Amino acid sequence: GETITVADLAQKLAMKGGEVVKALFKMGVMATITQSIDHDTAVLVTEELGHVALKADADNVEDALLAHVEETQGEKVVRPPVVTIMGHVDHGKTSLLDYIRRTKVVSGEAGGITQHIGAYHVETDRGVISFLDTPGHAAFSAMRARGAKLTDIVVLVVAADDGVKPQTKEAVQHAKAAKVPLIVAINKIDKSDADPLRVKNELLGEEVVAEEFGGDTQFVEISAKTGQGIDALLDAISIQAELLELTAVRDGRANGVVIESSLDKGRGPVATVLVQAGTLKKGDYLVCGVQYGRVRALFDERGEQVPEATPSIPVQVLGLSGVPDSGDDFVVVDDERLAKDVAQQRDAKRRESRLVAQAGNRMEDILAQM
Ligand code: GTP
Ligand code: MG
User: What does the entry list as the binding residues for GTP (predicted)?
Assistant: First the structure.
């Protein structure tokens, strides 16, 4: 294993060599300043001396991690679009996602039913499309927090019998602020009081202009109940995706983002991640927020094991040390040590900032009582 001289360890701890020798002696380890001690002993004595044993300094490991992300370079290839569904309450977002999942995700032989893993992908004649099955606003909050794009296209669901409502307008604002193109799905077209023209007119007020009115927004009339227009909607998404010319590096170590996570009684921590670059494989070491681990298994939305996942494809990951937060980044690294170091550094940092925040709160309490 790894070793370090007592002198080097003392230097890292900003202590005198003699103090470390003394602490080691108390632990029953005889070592002089120039002698080497093993990794575990170094961690023990460091903790004995009241320090948190961080195996490398924080900036170094984060740099090493960043290098891993930057190394995933090379020829970019076309990748599928990642779609988020937004719209006013009860306008049919869940029904639409469920209809597509039920009819377009071919269920696995074993279970016969598709899994709810927070995201899924479908294959159409025009190519693959990935859907995030999370509330639209959650996807956008995660995007804002990360300053990165998680979704390429928003499908705005507007009920044809209800028209434009506050959350419809909010969704338009979100998409515009994030510069994500919209496709309008006028839903519930099967209803007798459906009025698609009214929806188009009302959206003019939000500067969402249908192609037939001289604008550049695709409108598709659908029914999430009967399935009418769903294929046309999938086509519209593929057309929009082609215009966006979405690409990603496909080879090399993967990185991406956590969509959803949970603790499963039998399987341990489970995270649904969206690969954004590279290829995630079974056996990979990864850092995921403050968690780390080795990919024990990957599952798709049909609950079937898959050997790998490429850009824009969501996949369930087993083998993490704990449950990451949705919106966390994940990065594949070349060895477990680095994965562990980064995760532990981040965890220590997070604890530290929590302590600082708590101290701040206490200070405010004291000041408030004065
Ligand atoms: P929230 O998650 O509460 O915001 O609602 P939602 O947008 O997910 O709507 P949901 O899919 O739950 O649908 C609301 C209601 O509208 C349900 O009773 C659906 O059965 C019904 N519904 C959804 N789509 C259609 C449709 O195309 N036609 C008809 N007739 N009913 C629909
Ligand atoms: Mg819903």
Answer: 87-94, 133-137, 187-190
pLDDT digits (tens, 9 = 90+) for 60-88: 677 777 777 777 777 899 999 999 999 99
**How far does residue 248's CA lie from ligand 2's centre (Å)?**
31
Q: Is 254 helix (H, G, I), strand (E, B) or coil?
A: coil
Q: Phi and psi at residue 51, in whole multiples of 5°?
A: -100, 155
Binding site residue list for GTP: 87-94, 133-137, 187-190
Report the alpha-carbon angle 164-168-170, nearest 5: 135
Mutate to test the pocket of ligand 1, among 85, 90, 96 (most ligand atoms within 8 A of CB): 90
Q: Of the ranges 63-72, 119-128, 182-191, which is most confident?
A: 182-191
- Is the CB of 225 within 6 Å of ligand 1? yes
Does 187 contact ligand 1 (Cβ within 6 A)?
Answer: yes
Greatest alpha-carbon pair distance for the chain in Å reads 88
Ligand nearest to the CA of 89: 1
If one counts every other C-beta atom within 10 angstroms of the C-beta of residue 232, the result is 14
Quote the DSSP letter at residue 253: B
- Which residues touch 201 (CB under 8 Å, ≥6 apart)? none
| Ligand 1 pocket residue status of 92, Cβ below 6 Å | yes
Cβ pair 256, 79 in contact under 8 A? no
How far is Cα 321 from Cα 308, in angstroms, rounded to an integer? 20
- CB-based contacts of 13: which residues, under 8 Å, 6+ apart? 20, 46, 49, 51
